[in-house]
Description:
5-stranded antiparallel sheet
Amino acid sequence: SYIEKEMKPQAVFLCTVDEELKISSFFRGISEADLTPEEKTALNGTDRRNIFNSDHRSWFIAGLDMAGENIGVFALAYPSGDKPDPEITFDLMNSIIEELDNYFYAIKANRFKHMMIMEIQHCLKSKNLAEAIDRAVNMIGDAVPIQDLFLLYLDEDLEGQSTLQYLVYHNMAKAYDSTETRNPELDALIKA
């Protein structure tokens, strides 16, 4: 990898959220058991840039953040007597962190989308369609700002006749429900 070939650290440490959005730590060149208590404390810090010197290693520690939210720590260790230039090392680490940010953001966004879909499906299992849609729309509104939402659906009665129905939400509050009252302007637009 680029880190091992070009930066040549003794060890690599990464602590961040995994696919389940749980905090996980990853080690290369060292195990958690090899860390001193002081190193563990330093690696759990959230400093943007920090150098921690132990008896055996010098850790270059950088916090990972996504849109201002701390999501973990990335650190490289070098033997105490063979420490690279801090400015260059942190500049290279920042480049790596930007790539990690993109990767972790994609994981977090995909997980969030998946969880939203699962929750919406759960909401829509209700026997009362209007209530199910209201709950799903409110849940979407909590996650994504939506000013106006227009939903069209076919409502089939017991005799098999289909009627085009609609729901209109303004600022996530139901403005129109065609099963209760129809809006002549919307009806004309739909028929056009």
